[in-house]
Write a structure and sequence with these properties.
The chain is of the alpha+beta class and 77 residues long. The chain contains one helix and five strands, in the order E-E-E-E-E-H. Strand 1 and strand 2 form a beta hairpin. This is Transcriptional regulator.
Length: 77
Amino acid sequence: MKGYDITHMIVDDGLYGEETVTTEFTHKNKDYSITFKKSDLEILNKWVFENNTSLPTNLSDELIELIRDEVKKKINE
């Protein structure tokens, strides 16, 4: 089991003047969002959603790489 579940993915061509991919996922019963640059999947921001608000979050490099790999596969389909 991978420990997370991607629930939604949005490709946006207007944010920050270039294409981005925002990936929403659940991990350990919490909801998160990571926005990547589409061109190289560099992280632009990462958030955890708690108590009706979003807060910057720290995620393990391992988890980020797993999500990045899955996003890469989905955008290349």
